[in-house]
Amino acid sequence: MKKSANGNMYEVALDEAWELFGAHLSGARSGLVCVLSTQQLDERSRNALNSSAAALGYGRDACLFATLAPEGTPLDSQALFLLIEGVDPLCLVATDEAALKALCETYRCKAVPGKASRVFGRTCVAFRSFSRMLDDGQEKQVAWALLKKLPKRGEAKGRDR
User: Fold this and answer.
1) Quick one: how far is CA 148 from the chain centroid?
2) Could you tell me the pTM of the whole model?
3) How many domains does the chain have?
4) DSSP 8-state symbol, 96
5) Domain of residue 79, CATH code
6) Are 39 and 69 in contact (CB under 8 A)?
């Protein structure tokens, strides 16, 4: 295992994840909320998710955005596992059904859009299409209600950074 300058093994894993999957990642380098989407999210969706994370106590720009198929070729399950475990977020958001399907296949778990679930010890919320929900005032409230099921900062016992 490589050593980082300060000897922190978590920093080494994060560096390696960014090195391997940098083309798929954007946003906060060590984001506490990992947002998975099939294609890159529009600016409005990214801003809404960062605002939601801030409202939950994660701070401004707390989201790390992982695009599963930025150039059309999706990450396989092994690569997605390495990406998520390398960045080690506190919680997960799947913004579309294809991203949720990839997440469920990767972690061999069940999760459904519109509900909060647990994925490998992390709270996960999933949407059919987060971006489309922002077009309608009522759907936007439904999305916010689901995002509020993520733990508030400090409630993720044992994982608070």
Assistant:
1) 15
2) 0.88
3) 1
4) B
5) 3.40.470.10
6) yes
